[in-house]
Amino acid sequence: MTEFVAIDDFDRKLLARVRRNNLEPARVTAEAVGLSESAVLRRLRRLRAEGVIVRDVAVIDPARVEPRIVLHVLVEMNTQDRKVIEAFQRAMKASPEVQGCWDVTGETDYLVMVAVRSMRDYEAFGIREMVPDKGVRGFKSMIVIREVVGFDPARAVLGR
Which pTM value belongs to this model? Predict the structure, then answer.
């Protein structure tokens, strides 16, 4: 079970700022949140050490890099056997086409976000990963026509 970390209002302000721009200089952050630069650096180091800040990443606009098709795939498993489920999850983590995978409630067991260059590539992915011998009963694919609101870490809600 996940252990929760106690954070205060200063931590929340810091987290909101690093979500928007984790390259912002500490002196600018310090001025914006009302702390000293050393206090900001100390708090960010603690938040990283405690696993609140998991990693620092760059968000890439894939449309500017290469053409691709994005699909959301609803996956229904044919079993809840722990070994089969864990193998499926490992396969999703290892698949380069998978951009995200969520274990969800309802009729669907998993929501998988897939990005491929072509429908031929998606077909190959389906033949390789979405098959009964991998525990998959069936799946439905939804092709993304256009992104209306994409994932934006700065929009993520944090406490209060």
Answer: 0.72
